[in-house]
Amino acid sequence: MKKTILLPWVMILLTSCGRFGHQTRQHNDSTRIVCLSKQYNEVIYALGAEKNLVAVDLSSTYPPAIKALPTVGYHRALSAEGLLAQNPTLVIHDNNIGPENVMRQLEQMKVPMKTFMDSVFTIAQTKAMIQQLGTYFHKEPQADSLCKKLDAEMNQALTNVHQYTDTPKVVIIHFGRAMNIYLALTQKSTAAKLIGWAGGRIPIDGDKGMQQVSAELIAQADPDVILLTDFGYDRLGTFEKIKELPGVSGTKAALHHRIYRIEEHDIVYLGPRTGANVLGFQKLIHAGK
């Protein structure tokens, strides 16, 4: 039986502390921004607009420099105390935050909050988000450059697809932190768009973008390629250990040594690096073609 569960981030909720023991940065400017969206945060750094960013949510892991900032917890399980401890003059979010009682607390305390494009499921919406953030932070030329680069890389990726004669089945797995559960990304996920643009397809269906699945379902899908996100891959350590996992061992991916490590933040949302990520996935799933 499939059962929807939350992302692994929920299992390691943190309050307002740095992920690597860093203390809150000292800012001379009076502006103090807490941003609770991994998409926005990546764009803010890509624009070079991170100067006044003082804290982020736990799911914001790119670019690597962002890990020096304190976190205020998982964006769907926030606490008012954790946020207020950062003395924010502005909280930026994408309407995917909670719980509701915390948001009501912040509104009652008149903490300034702002959102930008909060439905980012297409390249056009991604560019609109980048442009909105560029305008807000007075980084319009940088935003234009990011959009042009995204277009060029996506055009190259979509051109590349025409040279492939097959459509590999690709299963993307989070190997869970609790009880070794499999969390697979489904055809409803953003990842399915990226894999489709790369010339592959995700064979696992579901009502949500990510679902808990059994070893039997992985085996039944019999993927040509398995992409394992960083936490699970690094914990297991070697390809030999990974290919011995129940449900994985008999797949084409295991037999042909086509199991690869990917960073979670490269596959779960669209952003300025989406074109580059699609090109990278093409190299993996069409290796040798």
UniProtKB/TrEMBL annotation:
Pfam family, one: Peripla_BP_2
PROSITE patterns named among the record's database cross-references: FE_B12_PBP (PS50983), PROKAR_LIPOPROTEIN (PS51257)
InterPro entries named among the record's database cross-references: ABC_Transporter_SBP, ABC_transptr_periplasmic_BD
Record-annotated Fe/B12 periplasmic-binding domain positions: 32-289
PANTHER family, sorted: HEMIN-BINDING PERIPLASMIC PROTEIN HMUT (PTHR30535:SF4), VITAMIN B12-BINDING PROTEIN (PTHR30535)
Annotated protein name in UniProt: ABC transporter substrate-binding protein
Protein source organism: Chitinophaga eiseniae
